[in-house]
């Protein structure tokens, strides 16, 4: 069950954070892994580590998901090399922690460019390859903040990030409706707080705040997302599409 042998999985944001965890989870089910990110040195290291751990070649491409022409070009290269794209995990993202009245136009547009435009560009270009093959699994990485607001006790605003993730949720639903006829499922994972380069997890003050808001009273652990991403990537989830799967320790149940 959930065997991904012969499946080609593309992971954006694959040089760090959740992208690496998703790559490991899918590699563990025998998928062929293709990593995309902007930082080549980090991509090289992650690819080498995965090859050593799983004993299989890992491909990578330097790609800025905010550049639609670059995304289209990389998608073509992946199809040329592997013949198809079966699974796409759109994980590249970012944001600011600033009160809304302090957000500049530049900050707003930068976050939207990565979190929303980049996700759309990747869905569109990877989706084209999937439509041709009549099969695909698209997994967009959203956030619990696409569904709920953040208590001001957090200590910072997060309006543009929350807005972008809310948009990703409904983009996910719409693409699911449009592409169901092509054998493609489109779902989103909505994580709570996990450790990453930009996450506040590990900050003592934030960790106290998290314990008052999250029913499980902790951050997400490194492998808490594994089963969800593997399930959504597998053949066994063929009748599940347009869903936003929360992995947040019960935060959005409040």
Question: Can you give me a brief rundown of this structure?
Answer:
This protein has 254 residues and is an alpha/beta fold. It has one domain (8-247): Rossmann fold (3-Layer(aba) Sandwich). 43% of the residues lie in helices and 15% in strands.
Description:
There is one protein chain. Helix content is 43%, strand content 15%. The two termini are 33 Å apart. It is globular. It has one domain (8-247): Rossmann fold (3-Layer(aba) Sandwich). The chain is an alpha/beta fold. It contains 7 helices and 7 strands. A 7-stranded parallel beta sheet has the order 3-2-1-4-5-6-7, with helices on both faces.
What labels describe this entry?
254 residues; alpha/beta; Rossmann fold; seven-stranded parallel β-sheet; 15% strand
Task: Draw up the topology in text.
Layout: E1 8-12, H1 17-27, E2 32-37, H2 40-54, E3 59-62, H3 68-82, E4 87-90, H4 105-133, E5 136-141, H5 159-179, E6 184-191, H6 204-213, H7 226-233, E7 244-247
Parallel strand pairs: 1-2, 1-4, 2-3, 4-5, 5-6, 6-7
Helix pairs in contact: 1-7, 3-4, 4-5
